[in-house]
Amino acid sequence: MRLRNIPGAQDAILESAYVVQEPEKHKGNWGDVFEKKQPLHIEVGMGKGRFLMDLARLHPEINYVGIEMYDSVLLRGLQKRTELEQEGITYPNLYFMRVDARLLPEIFAKGEVDKIYLNFSDPWPKARHAKRRLTSRQFLTRYDQILVPEGKVEFKTDNRELFEFSLEEVKDAGWNLDAFTFDLHHDAQMSEGNVMTEYEEKFSSMGNPICKMVISRGQN
């Protein structure tokens, strides 16, 4: 269940040095936001940010942007990052922003993003809400507008129905299905180097198999 309506969350986000305000102003120039110009990876629906903070620490050679649309969820990520930075763990290659993912093409230029992560996204189970799913063909079109030609999208979920829907959307949208598994933690090849999210730890500990796919853009 998502956290909502934490008093002061919006103000904390507006005042945070970790959050990029008015991100659309950086379209085409995201390399200037960071200390170093490096490949850019983004997570759409970052939740509390643990996954990206782990990646940013493990891969200082990559710049990361975490995207979250709920104030109270993003606030938890800011609080966790503040705690870690007070302990001396810094993340010069990581920023957050509070935006709706439908606006991605207004924020990043074509070919500006190298990889997109989607982790345990809201399944939007009702058929009439299918276009809101982050693996729908509508969102794949948005990703196509910002990824480099060889760009990839990595998607993990424990929701089998959403995963099967996503496989069909990838096919119908003309993307390449580079790899997939219905049981990530028992797939030696695909689990190599896997960084777990909080949801992933929770669901896998309950015995839920984790599905994962890696897709890339089709030929234009």
Tally of alpha and pi helices? 8
The major beta sheet can be summarized as: 7 strands, mixed
Radius of gyration: 17 Å
**SSE order, one letter for each helix or strand:** HEHEHEHEHEHEHHE
Helix/sheet category: alpha/beta
Strands, total number? 7
Q: Spans of 5+ residues with little confidence (pLDDT < 50)?
A: none
Helicity, in percent?
25-40%
Distance between the termini: 39 Å
Mean pLDDT: 94
What is the approximate shape?
globular
**Major beta sheet, strand line-up:** 3-2-1-4-5-7-6
Strand content: 15-25%
Characterization of the model:
It is a single chain. With 220 residues, the chain is an alpha/beta fold. The protein has 8 helices and 7 strands; from the N terminus they run H-E-H-E-H-E-H-E-H-E-H-E-H-H-E. It has helices at residues 9-15, 50-58, 71-86, 104-107, 137-144, 160-172, 188-191, 198-205; strands at 40-44, 63-68, 94-98, 113-119, 147-157, 176-181, 211-216. It has a 7-stranded mixed sheet with strand order 3-2-1-4-5-7-6, with helices on both faces. Strand 1, helix 2 and strand 2 (63-68) form a beta-alpha-beta unit. Helix 1 (9-15) crosses helix 3. The longest helix is centred in the middle third of the chain and has 16 residues, at 71-86. The termini are far apart.
